[in-house]
Design goal:
Layout: E1 4-6, H1 9-13, E2 31-33, H2 40-47, H3 49-65, H4 71-91, H5 106-123, E3 128-129, E4 132-144, E5 158-168, H6 173-184, H7 186-189, E6 202-213, E7 217-228, E8 235-244, E9 249-250, H8 262-278, H9 287-294, E10 300-301, E11 307-311, E12 326-330, H10 342-347
Parallel strand pairs: 5-6
Antiparallel strand pairs: 1-2, 3-4, 4-5, 6-7, 7-8, 8-9, 10-11, 11-12
Helix pairs in contact: 2-3, 3-5, 4-5, 8-9
Signal peptide: 1-29
Protein name: DUF3298 domain-containing protein
Organism: Devosia yakushimensis
Length: 349
């Protein structure tokens, strides 16, 4: 008697066949008989217990992720899942083309396992947050690395590019405005720079996740990672994208701080806090460079009630190995440069 497993939701949408005895489950979480597995990908899922288990989790994750969505949101998620399925079958090969014969070796199977688990983790962000239903849209791309194609021993024959961000699932002005803002500003999510998105010799991952949802502000944390094939290490960046709800726009520095010379005041406080929190690890650039960083709302987090958190990225104020440090400046110390909108931004009312 053949083993039955859960397969990713996209298989159902791409025409996976259920046996007559299969149990009917929500769309996007179909079952199939492994005796009918015909492609190397399907055979890998059926033949390796760790992949079967991860695939089962993914099917459940997807079913949960589309629960309660509108028709539009569900269709968007299904489209993303189809794109992901095609990507998963390409990215773990040597030429970014799905296998039609043969089988995945251990390295390819390990790659598939990582991609299955990563997709499940991403789908967990499709949920209710702050009284609003968000869902995830994503883009995936696998390309042959032209610099590695002729090297049979290369670890980097295929480059992987992944991007995801949330949208609001509702038919109301807030959802329409926020979603329009996100689609227009999607490039702000990608912190890798203009050329990285087309670099066939690099792995690139950009994601945006909801951090805070207030009546006045929706804040996303954006994470970028890129690795040039053959480099000693990858690079990363963390930034914030603040949507100011009352005016349907990105948050401005002038919404938080005001007064003549507020930038220099913030710079002075930031330099003192850098020394206080990070001391001997610092390798500081000139003050103008630091000022551009600390006065940029994309570096500000409002998660801490005690103070403004400012995000620095790799190499900016310390060596690469030190990571991406932050500092926290007390709101009491910032009182003198407080803008009229600051309480609205911080507290939502």
């Amino acid at each position: 008697m053949s083993k039955s497993i859960k397969v990713m939701s996209a298989l159902a949408m791409l025409g996976a066949v259920m046996t007559p005895a299969a149990v009917v489950v929500p769309a996007a979480a179909a079952s199939f008989d492994c005796s009918k597995a015909s492609t190397p990908y399907e055979q890998a899922i059926c033949g390796r217990p760790e992949l079967s288990a991860a695939d089962d989790v993914l099917a459940k994750s997807f079913a949960t992720a589309i629960g309660g969505l509108t028709k539009e949101g569900t269709e968007a998620m299904r489209a993303s899942q189809r794109v992901w399925l095609d990507y998963a079958q390409r990215v773990c090969t040597d030429n970014a083309t799905p296998l039609t014969t043969g089988s995945y070796d251990d390295e390819g199977a390990a790659c598939l396992l990582e991609k299955l688990k990563a997709r499940s983790r991403l789908l967990e962000a499709s949920r209710m947050i702050g009284g609003h239903r968000f869902y995830i849209v994503s883009q995936y791309r696998a390309m042959p690395d032209p610099n590695e194609a002729d090297n049979p021993d290369s670890y980097w024959k295929v480059s992987s590019h992944e991007m995801s961000y949330p949208l609001l699932d509702h038919d109301d002005p807030l959802a329409e405005n926020f979603n329009g803002f996100m689609k227009q500003n999607w490039s702000a999510i990608a912190g890798t720079g203009g050329d990285a998105a087309e670099d066939a010799s690099a792995d690139v991952m950009d994601s945006a996740v909801i951090k805070q949802v207030l009546a006045s502000r929706i804040t996303l944390e954006t994470n970028s990672y890129w690795y040039g094939h053959g480099a000693a290490h990858g690079n990363g960046a963390v930034r914030y994208l603040h949507y100011f709800v009352p005016e349907n726009r990105a948050l401005l520095a002038s919404d938080v701080f005001a007064g003549e010379g507020w930038e220099k005041t913030l710079l002075t406080l930031a330099l003192a806090q850098l020394e206080n929190e990070h001391g001997d690890w610092l390798q500081l650039p000139d003050d103008d460079t630091i000022e551009k960083i600390v006065t940029d709302p994309a570096r500000w987090s409002f998660d801490d009630d005690y103070g403004l958190v400012i995000q620095f990225n790799q190499y900016e104020v310390a060596a690469y190995a030190y990571g991406m440090p932050t500092i926290t400046i007390s709101w009491d110390d910032l009182e003198a440069i407080k803008a009229d909108n600051q309480d609205l931004v911080r507290y939502g009312n």
